[in-house]
Design brief:
DNA-binding, 44% helix, alpha+beta, homodimer, 2 domains, 223 residues, Arc Repressor Mutant, subunit A, Jelly Rolls
Chain lengths: 223, 223
DNA sequence: ATTTAAATGTGATATAAATCACATTTAACA
DNA sequence: TGTTAAATGTGATTTATATCACATTTAAAT
């Protein structure tokens, strides 16, 4: 497989020269993961840059008390750049929430691109900056909003950022949902069922339909 | 003032060529801030890269409920790279906790260095990656530890990462301390006074001395 | 040095959310 | 297709921490 024909190029990779793309092709392994499989694991060695070509992934860390889902990332995106870059071992894990296609890129080759190709480096910096700001705000919401608001946020996130559809199959169990918004499976259960009773959403197991977006936005804002 | 003579060069700036340092000198403004002054402000335009040469700074965001101190940064470090880079307006504020010396670097010149100097770009990427991992863990502790553990963490942070001394002047009011660990001034008050009663620390207003580090570590780990 | 405002301490009370316990449903698999 | 395990729902209870209220101390300002 040659990267030149790949339809999933990242914003950074688009700026590589033909020669560089060629070099990438020889140092890039394509791997597929099934739903539920771990892509990389906390405390294991990190020696490749991981690029998510298609699919949906949860990034998670085992905290002092629970597993926390730090973020949910959909393709295309680099997965865990920070952990690969200046750490010998991964500081967190990534698990496929849907079937995923992933590229493992040799770290040295990737570094070489940064050294030689300023536009490539700039794109990576831009992505990292965006990630950091996003994580600031996720943390702010996690710590300052009440659970109802956090559930509303998460539902709106799946609608707008992941599926672009008011109806979707929730890719998480109630427990994972809890890990994503820092609460328990019981609280998630109660709140989404309350939402259903109030006619804000419709749920059938994992299938969710947002009926009253404005109410969700309102609940999200009130905290 | 010429940057070539500056004793506070960042790890990235060290890799600039003589010509580039010269260019930097012409596009870099040195400013001093007194304790309590705002260095940059949420919602204001961000048009400069800000480099903290000396002093101590709090980075903070106004959340849905309270002000949150996202992190406390001591020199030398870039302040708010993420917010300057791909946002027109700042997403958060930075305020001096001590008198600070700061450089305002023209954004275009900084970008130019990234494009032209791969080692410079690589250093910036390294710093951004480190920041992101740190913020993941800060968020994890914020959400999963009980207040006692978070207070212990913060005290150990000031000891190890800021002052390198078991005795220090706390650069925050009780309320700011609360904003830093996501709690109220009352809870901070109660807990540090409990710590004093148990002989773990000694406090006299803002002056703190850590007496039993092992106990603090233990409290921090138990959550 | 005196006044005023800001910061801090501390008890009493309220509250959001965790925990516990168990019933029920859904999905996995053999 | 039936059996077992995993996931979910829901009430009752507990708990950590916020909130409220007010006294006291410290720092700032005149």
């Amino acid at each position: 497989m040659n990267c030149i024909d790949c339809n999933f190029k990242s914003s950074a990779t688009k700026f590589l020269s033909k020669g560089e793309i060629e070099e990438l092709s020889h140092n890039c392994a394509h791997v597929e993961f099934k739903k539920g499989e771990k892509i990389f694991k906390e405390s294991s060695f990190s020696s490749n840059i991981i690029y998510l070509k298609s699919g949906l992934v949860k990034v998670h860390i085992l905290g002092p008390k629970n597993e926390q889902i730090t973020k949910i990332t959909k393709a295309s995106a680099f997965l865990g750049l920070p952990t690969t870059f200046n750490e010998k071992v991964n500081k967190y894990s990534a698990t496929a929430l849907e079937n995923c296609k992933v590229c493992f890129i040799d770290l040295e080759v990737f570094k070489h691109f940064i050294y030689k190709n300023g536009v490539f480096a700039y794109q990576i910096i831009t992505e990292l900056c965006k990630n950091e700001i996003d994580s600031f705000f996720r943390c702010l919401n996690r710590t300052q909003k009440q659970i109802t608001g956090r559930v509303a946020d998460a539902l709106l996130f799946f609608y707008h950022d992941i599926y672009d559809d008011k109806e979707f199959i929730l890719p998480l169990t109630r427990e994972e949902f809890g890990n994503y918004i820092d609460t328990t499976r019981e609280s998630v259960s109660r709140i989404i069922n309350d939402f259903q009773k109030e006619g804000i959403i419709k749920i059938k197991n994992k299938k969710i339909k947002i009926l009253k977006e404005e109410r969700l936005i309102n609940i999200s804002e009130k905290g």
